[in-house]
Every structure is written in structure tokens, then in C-alpha cells.
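Entry type: protein chain
Record version: 2
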Amino acid sequence: MESLKQRHPAVFVKKEGEISGRAATRIAKELAAELPEFTAQAGTWDQDGFLNFDGERPITLYGATNPNEDLSEAAKFYFVALEELRAKAPQRAAFFDALVEAWKAP
């Protein structure tokens, strides 16, 4: 996570008055280059963007559309329905736990 923070410092600054839905959208856009790391940890998508359901399934059917939507849906659930994400997709929850933990002030 430290390398993510160094590569994307703007992502780790909470915007004043930012609501969770907008934060999730902003984070997904700003972290688009991190899709390979997300997909490797989630284990659902191969490097070419094809499904690999040997890993954890996306949180929603829409998330199974492609890796971008998988990341976006996971971010949405993290900020809006965290307990459901933890129950249905714990690897995705862990990815965002680590990401959010890195945002906290030292």
C-alpha cells in the first residue's frame, strides 16, 4: 500500500465535504492503473480481462461485466454496504481495508 500512496498521493487526501459515493467514483477513476494489483488480489480476472472464477466472485452481477466494473462495485459496497462486502467478497473488502488504512494520518 505504501507504493500506491507514493504513486497516487492525491488519492489519499480526503476531499472536504466529499460523500462516500463521490469518493468511491473518484477513487476508482484515480486508481484505474491499479487494476492489475486489484485483480491479482481478488483472483477473478486474468491479465487480459477475462473471467477466472477460480477466485472470489465479484460482489454483483454488474461487477462481473469487466475488471473496471468489478473495482467500481467493490468500492461502492465498501463505502455503502461494508458488512455485505465483507460477507460476500472478503478479499475485495481486504483490498479496500488496506487502501483506506493507508489514508490515515500517521
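Comment: The mean pLDDT is 80.
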